[in-house]
Write a structure and sequence with these properties.
By secondary structure, this protein is mainly α. It contains twelve helices and two strands; from the N terminus they run H-H-H-H-H-H-H-H-E-E-H-H-H-H. A hairpin with a 3-residue loop joins strand 1 and strand 2.
C-alpha cells in the first residue's frame, strides 16, 4: 500500500513538473545552529551536513518554481505540527530513556541497511570507486560490525559512507528540480527528488518486511532514533527565520544542488 501510494504520487508529480519551469538556481539547504546530542561526535555524517547547511544558508537567495505554494504551505504546517506534537516528544523520550551507545548502534544498523540505495546511486553516476567502497563497507560492517551495529569500516578502515540517493542520480543526468513540493511526513522535496524517493523506497530492505505494519513500525523506530540526535535543529531554523516556509525551501534546494555537484 505504501509503495503504491508513492508511485501514484510520483506519477502525478512528474506530469505537473513537466508543465512547470525548471528554475533551480543557487540552491541552499539550511539548518541553523545545531543543538547536538551530548557526546555525539561532530564527525558523524548528519552533523556534518547540518554544519554545511549553516555555512551556506546566507550565501544566496534560492529561486525555484513554486506554483503549488498553497498546498506546500499547508503541508509545511502539517509537518510542523506533526513534529512538535508527535515526533519531538518521541525523540525526547528516546533520548532520555535509551543510552546513547544503544542509539548509536541503532543508527549504524539502519545506515548499513540503506547501503543498496547508496551503492546503486553511486553506480548510476559512474562513481565506481564509491560504489566499491559501499560494497566493502556493507560486507565488513555486516560481519565484523555484527550486522552493522558497529561501523568498523569507518572507525578502523577509514571508509566513509557515500551520501548518495536516486534524486542526486537524476540531477547528475541533467534533470532539473521541476517544481518545489512539500510532502506530508517526508518534508521538503521537488518533482525530481520525489521520483528519486520512490526509487529509494524500492531499494530499502525495510519496505519488504511483512506484514506492512511491522515495516511501518521499524521505520518509525528508525526515524525516532535519528531525530533523537537532531533535536534543536529545526527549532533553530524556525526561530531565526522571518518566513520558516521560505527558509526551509531555500535551504533544501541549495543543499540538493550542492549534493548533485559533488
Amino acid at each position: 500500500m505504501k509503495s503504491q501510494m508513492l508511485v501514484m504520487v510520483a506519477g502525478a508529480l512528474v506530469l505537473v513538473g513537466c508543465s512547470a519551469s525548471n528554475t533551480a538556481v543557487s540552491n541552499n539547504v539550511g539548518s541553523t545552529a545545531v543543538v547536538p546530542d551530548p557526546g555525539v561526535s561532530p564527525s558523524e555524517s548528519s552533523d556534518d551536513e547540518f554544519d554545511l547547511f549553516e555555512e551556506q544558508l546566507d550565501e544566496a537567495e534560492v529561486k525555484i518554481a513554486d506554483p503549488l505554494a498553497g498546498w506546500n504551505r499547508a503541508m509545511h504546517n502539517f509537518n510542523d505540527k506533526l513534529y512538535f506534537w508527535v515526533l519531538r516528544p518521541c525523540a525526547r523520550l528516546c533520548r532520555k530513556t535509551v543510552p546513547r551507545p544503544a542509539r548509536v548502534s541503532a543508527r549504524n544498523f539502519f545506515s548499513n541497511l540503506s547501503a543498496p540505495v547508496r551503492y546503486f546511486s553511486c553506480l548510476l553516476q559512474g562513481k565506481r570507486k564509491a560504489a566499491g567502497r559501499e560494497l566493502h563497507r556493507f560486507a565488513y560492517n555486516s560481519t565484523v560490525g555484527v550486522l552493522g551495529l558497529a561501523d568498523p569500516a569507518k572507525d578502523k578502515l577509514g571508509l566513509e559512507p557515500a551520501e548518495e540517493d536516486l534524486g542526486q542520480v537524476l540531477g547528475k543526468w541533467g534533470f532539473g528540480h521541476g517544481i518545489y513540493l512539500v510532502l506530508p511526513f517526508f518534508g521538503p522535496s521537488s518533482v525530481r527528488d520525489a521520483v528519486g524517493l520512490v526509487g529509494d523506497q524500492f531499494l530499502n530492505p525495510i519496505r519488504y518486511v511483512e506484514p506492512t505494519e511491522a515495516s511501518i513500525a521499524i521505520s518509525a523506530v528508525k526515524y525516532t532514533n535519528e531525530n533523537s540526535f537532531r533535536l534543536g535543529e529545526y527549532e533553530s531554523l524556525k526561530s531565526t527565520a522571518v518566513d520558516p516556509y521560505a527558509a526551509m525551501r531555500n535551504a533544501y534546494i541549495q543543499y540538493r544542488k550542492k549534493k548533485v555537484e559533488e
